[in-house]
Amino acid sequence: MKVKFELQNLDSTTKARAGILHTPHGDVPTPIFMAVGTAGSVKGIELRLLEETGVRIILGNTYHLALRPGEGLIKQLGGLHKFTGWRGPMLTDSGGFQVFSLAQRTKITEEGARFQSHIDGRRMMFSPERSIEIQEALGSDIAMCMDHVLGLPNTDKKIYDAMSRTVRWAQRCKEFASREDQSLFGIVQGGLNRDFRLECVERLTAMDFEGYAVGGLSVGEPPEMMYATMDYTVEALPQDKPRYLMGVGTPADLLEGIERGIDMFDCVMPTRNGRNAMAFTAHGRMRLRNFKYFDDERPLEEDCPCPACKRSRAYLRHLFIAREILGPILLSIHNITYYERLIAQARAAILANRFEAFKRECYEGWAEENE
Amino acid sequence: MKVKFELQNLDSTTKARAGILHTPHGDVPTPIFMAVGTAGSVKGIELRLLEETGVRIILGNTYHLALRPGEGLIKQLGGLHKFTGWRGPMLTDSGGFQVFSLAQRTKITEEGARFQSHIDGRRMMFSPERSIEIQEALGSDIAMCMDHVLGLPNTDKKIYDAMSRTVRWAQRCKEFASREDQSLFGIVQGGLNRDFRLECVERLTAMDFEGYAVGGLSVGEPPEMMYATMDYTVEALPQDKPRYLMGVGTPADLLEGIERGIDMFDCVMPTRNGRNAMAFTAHGRMRLRNFKYFDDERPLEEDCPCPACKRSRAYLRHLFIAREILGPILLSIHNITYYERLIAQARAAILANRFEAFKRECYEGWAEENE
């Protein structure tokens, strides 16, 4: 089966929407935040604990998995679900962003991207067809078309060329894709240029993908420009398909995206920042190495059900100071739990037609504790 | 309350014994393996997963916790149980082994041990009274008397002096200890010298501790000499008190200790080796980085209920090769689960008066897969 998006409610005063994404591995309530399981694990979090964070869908990275252990092994062992033990829905990215951000000596041609592995310098090639081939071997529920990602700012010509190539590559991905149980999302590029973005939307929607992603944001531009770009881009996307804002972002970014009609998000921020002793909470960010938490008996958040919040801030600080790996583990779990609770609350607010008030309350809470 | 040892069965052909250790935080079936929670966490294992390994009692390190975060903070926050969230029984060591093995510039006098912290070089002093003071602040169920640990081989004079000082320190610990809900174990020293060991046992048992530990083993001597020392030392200890072999050891060491009448063990081996990609199994040790596991679909052990064994060896190998911290986490969990299953099976064998056959079967299994 292909994924199917069921719209449940449009918020009465914003463009926020609540729905259900039906996938071969189960239903996902939207809006939703996907935890990032780069190389076959959400870093430091055993599945049992991951499930308790409220995570419903995991993102796997095509670039990382193709390099190590190789998609051939994963396919031989029954696919990414069986390999990792995660039974719920999975989305794989295309590798397009990693050949831009992580690989070495990347050269983009119409054929695809030539680059060297950031691990061992091995020369490799990702084409749209190769990206789909890998994603089909991994067996995710949702595959992404390979896109041409650029850093911002950039020249109009380069941005237009990359957008146009992304569209041509999307066509090649669609023609190459063959799995009945895997859906394909197109990725909208076009930098911060309204005309380019709208042209990209028009050309992609003509191909009728199962969902659409907004790509090429959060790559160096100020947040207001990202939000402005979302305004007109998301507006132009079809209502009956899921919309995914790739690689974004902070808790505020999630709410800004939701307000503009985004349904799906992913970001390494909760796990990466958690490993570095930063906790996201309803009352702002906390840096747990700070001496002010030395003897703080309180949990990070009073009402959070996660295992980190069964301990004191003083204990969590101690774990980081003593370099006990339980510190990064617990804060990663807390941060994912925080993201999932935030987005579940946002969903409830949309269903109650009070998203605007909910967003305001969140901003007020975050302002309480400044770093 | 003080801990109380209830003897359930003496194996019919060996000195192995099965019992129950009643503690203020619950009962512990013996023989038992204590997981090491050095600095307030069993490295990498969240409590929820730790409980599922079968662990019943945790060891905390007085030296580490006194250095960081300091026992004063832990006491202020309600003791080590509340600080860490572990609700079951806990034992704390005395710090005697760490000032010997880990601290810098250690000088032993009759008063105690002067040394510099291995973390920041701070000058510190552990006396028998100071060790008890720290352990009472931590609030463990079982505290250990501070002992004078030596490396082997060593001169008879040094070994006798250290043994004799250990006895005098035990007397000071006993006189200083004041908590009604904490029990105190004496530690038998005396190197590999039968006379010294037996004299130590005689002098310690005259003081009537709630339990006795065999210390100063596994410090450089061959296993056979350790086993021989245990033969006469354990034999001399009273039947109605628990016996603890400190810091030992391999799965084989556990069985050899049990056969000689030991009830309690602790060792960092399952977690430390797990972090370094070594798995203990009923069919021997496995090094998971080995290429032979590249596409091995089997779990580490078919009948193991741990989360690592819900995955393939190929997946576990991938985690280590890709440096995903889930690898060390899963193998630490598996190894503790293996130790706890082994010792639970040993207990069942003792209750069935077939420990000797059980031990032989274990050795046969371990011989199957050589590294």
Please give a structural write-up.
Two copies of one chain form a homodimer. Chain A is α/β, with parallel strands linked by helices and 371 residues long. Chain A has a single domain, classed as Alpha-Beta Barrel (TIM Barrel). The first copy, chain A, is 41% helix and 19% strand. Chain A contains 14 helices and 16 strands. The first copy, chain A, has helices at residues 47-52, 62-67, 71-76, 80-84, 96-101, 128-138, 156-176, 194-205, 223-236, 251-259, 269-275, 313-321, 326-351, 355-368, and strands spanning 4-10, 17-23, 26-30, 32-36, 58-60, 90-92, 104-108, 113-116, 123-126, 142-144, 183-188, 211-214, 243-245, 264-266, 278-281, 284-287. In chain A, helix 6 packs across helix 7, helix 7 packs parallel to helix 8 (194-205) and helix 11 runs antiparallel to helix 13 (326-351). The longest helix of chain A has 26 residues, at 326-351. Chain A is globular and about 60 Å long. The termini of chain A are far apart. The model of chain A has no long low-confidence stretch (mean pLDDT 97).
Labels describing this entry:
eight-stranded parallel barrel; 16 strands; 371 residues; alpha/beta; TIM Barrel
